[in-house]
Design goal:
The chain is an alpha+beta fold. It is about 55% helix and about 20% strand. It has one domain.
Length: about 210
């Protein structure tokens, strides 16, 4: 009887510890979700969709990406926050589309390309020096040809994908991100990977419920 009682108590303690851990995880995820939502309101993604998954089309996608990144980042040096970045990109969409089209033609292809600025759902994405949680972000989207190939995405404002790893935090803060938001996406917060996973879980649940 004593053995059964002791075993029951151990099981109860384990279940209680698991429930507490789950509660902490969910609470952390909820807090990180709020920070992630606010983060999404401060950045602009670049999303380039290749015509197909052929080796040639994927190589072309990267050339278009590089050409547009140079122009977009030069343009966005004038922006101090996302609102200004959005206004500048919106005003120069046709120019960015022409630049992408010129790069395609220069590489011997006749694919059409379209440039749009729109809210887009993204999964969690891990880069070399930072991680962006899942969520809906404003994105400059370039669709090459059929847009049926693997895509490439990163951050054009702030220019995190072309910023040295040591300068990511400084660049993000200069663009108006808060310290909490910087902590969420960088290794300065040791729990950022777990928090990003929690955000992804909450975003998946939200999508299913809606």
């Amino acid at each position: 009887m004593d053995t059964k009682l002791a075993s029951s108590r151990r099981l109860y303690k384990i279940e209680t510890a698991l429930m507490i851990a789950l509660a902490l995880f969910l609470a952390s995820g909820a807090m990180a979700l709020q920070t992630g939502s606010e983060l999404a309101d401060r950045v602009v993604r670049l999303h380039v969709l290749a015509n197909s998954d052929s080796e040639e089309d994927q190589a072309l996608k990267l050339k278009v990406r590089d050409r547009v990144l140079v122009q977009a980042e030069a343009l966005l040096r004038q922006a101090s926050d996302r609102a200004e970045a959005e206004a500048l990109l919106q005003a120069h969409l046709s120019e960015l589309e022409r630049i992408a089209q010129a790069e395609i033609l220069a590489n011997g292809y006749d694919y059409a390309v379209s440039a749009h600025l729109e809210e887009t759902e993204f999964p969690t994405r891990v880069y070399d020096s930072f991680t962006l949680p899942a969520g809906k972000y404003l994105a400059l989207r370039l669709i090459i040809g059929e847009g049926g190939g693997r895509n490439w995405w990163c951050v054009v404002f702030p220019p995190l994908c072309t910023t040295a790893a040591a300068s990511v935090s400084e660049t993000a803060l200069a663009a108006g991100l808060t310290q909490d938001q910087v902590n969420l996406i960088t290794s300065e917060d040791q729990g950022y990977v777990l928090k990003s996973k929690a955000v992804e879980w909450w975003e998946t649940l939200r999508a299913k419920l809606s």
